[in-house]
Amino acid sequence: MQTENRFFDDLAKVVNGAVGSLAGMGREAEAAMRERFKEFVGGMDFVSRDEFEAVKAMAAAARDEADALKARLDALEKGGKPAAAAARKAPRKSSSGA
């Protein structure tokens, strides 16, 4: 025959309550630490991955455009008139008559 012992029932309730409270405190401490870490990292002026990827794409596009313009300039210089190239290299005379 089983006897009812209120002492053990009360002890089990107290232990369950203590474990639940400790788990809650752990969750709160973790959330607080996450928040402090976010503030710390945010204060260091790091960029997000999205911002980095956007700037990387802009730099690649600018590099491609510069390469295309350089190729176009090289083609124009090769196909240009020799007289125009000589005129660019010759010093200009002043119009003051001196």
Quick overview:
The chain has 98 residues and is mostly helical. The chain has helices at residues 6-42, 49-79, 82-89. The protein contains three helices and no strands.
Determine the mean pLDDT. Answer: 82
Largest sheet: none
Beginning-to-end CA distance, first to last residue: 131 Å
Strand content: under 5%
Can you describe what's shown?
Helices cover 78% and strands 0% of the residues. The protein contains three helices and no strands. It has helices spanning 6-42, 49-79, 82-89. It starts with 5 loop residues before the first helix and ends in a 9-residue tail after the last helix.
Features of this protein?
single chain; 98 residues; mainly alpha; 2 domains; 3 helices; 78% helix; rod-shaped
What is the topology?
Layout: H1 6-42, H2 49-79, H3 82-89
